[in-house]
Amino acid sequence: MKILVTGSAGFIGAALAQRLLERGDTVIGYDNLNDYYDVSLKQARLTRLQAQAGFTEVRASLEDRVALTETFEKYRPQRVVNLAAQAGVRYSIENPHAYVDSNLAGFVNVLEACRHHEVEHLVYASSSSVYGANTRQPFSVHDNVDHPVSLYAATKKANELMAHAYSHLYRLPTTGLRFFTVYGPWGRPDMALFLFTRKILAGQPIDVFNYGQHRRDFTYIDDIVEGVIRTLDQAAAPNPAWSGAAPDSATSHAPYRLYNIGSHRPVELLRYIEVLEQCLGRTAVKNLLPMQLGDVPDTFADVEALIADVGYQPTTPIEEGVARFVAWYRDYYRV
Questions:
Q1: Most CB within 10 Å of its CB: which of 34, 71, 168, 222?
Q2: pLDDT in tens, 172-200
Q3: Which helix (H) or strand (E) is 301 found in, with range?
Q4: Neighbouring C-alpha atoms within 13 Å toward the C-beta of 162
């Protein structure tokens, strides 16, 4: 297939593009290489893709409606995976306008382009952050998610609602994927694993929020990519059993689906750090702190819908995933 991947220089986008190219798809990578984190890392991810047949790079922002429209008109993608977004819970407190520009204005540009260019299926990144103040676990795609605790989470919830409107109005098949704490080689420097590794190797203390007591459904990058591909290959379809009298938020009378992609095995942060210490052969100096504004105590993904519909469940344990990350980090940074 010919597939447009937005955010192709990002952590998930680059890994997805690589897998699609390996199986013979044509990939149009769309990214603006913004400076939210180290641009050289983004460029290094892109360099690996640029050397391969079947990959075309477009450097532009989702907010640039003209550039996005021209990309659709020129390349005519059959399917689209929208991974470009302003990421980060805490940064949304510092710079809320960046999230409105990219995650809301940019996303409606994607929806409009898909609508007008006969795209067969749009898959887009949502987030486990949408569960917000929910405390019933594991988090299910069938649960209400109307109480976000950060603007980032609110924009991701908005994306799901916007996608549904386009699925209903224009019969555009859309699938939203709620990712749970993605980690692994080529990861994001603003994420805990990256920050911890850098500081432990430098002999610096690490900040451990919520005193290390919160749990996260850490999900390895390869598992995320496999879930994205399986959902991409199976275009969303209407649920014939859906009823407006008892509406299911994960499906619809329209061609619309939502899935969690998580390991279904939440791990306490202190255990995660312990595994990292074992892989590094060093002990961390921990600066124990209260929970950060906008954060949640625990995440735990119910992946039953993913298993039932596409026959897949993430399987990589943190012991294996963290070891692979550390090996990559030492090689990439020559540590």
A1: 71
A2: 999 999 999 999 999 999 999 999 999 99
A3: none
A4: 23
What is the per-residue DSSP string for 179-233? E--EESTT--TTSHHHHHHHHHHTT--EEEGGGG--EE--EEHHHHHHHHHHHHH
Question: Strand locations in the chain, DSSP E?
Answer: 2-6, 26-31, 55-59, 79-82, 121-127, 174-179, 182-183, 206-208, 215-216, 219-220, 256-261, 267-268, 286-288
287 close to 205: Cβ distance less than 8 angstroms: yes
Q: HEC profile for 156-170?
A: HHHHHHHHHHHHHHH
Catalytic residue among 30, 99, 152, 259: 152
Judge whether 238 and 254 are in contact, CB under 8 Å. yes
Distance between first and last Cα of the chain: 40
37 catalytically annotated: no
Which residue from 293, 273, 294 is spatially nearest to 282, judged by alpha carbons? 273
Q: What is the pLDDT of residues 102-157, one digit of tens each?
A: 999 999 999 999 999 999 999 999 999 999 999 899 999 999 999 999 999 999 99
Q: Report the DSSP beta bridge partners of residue 288.
A: 208
Q: Say which residue the tokens 């939203």 belong to.
A: 176
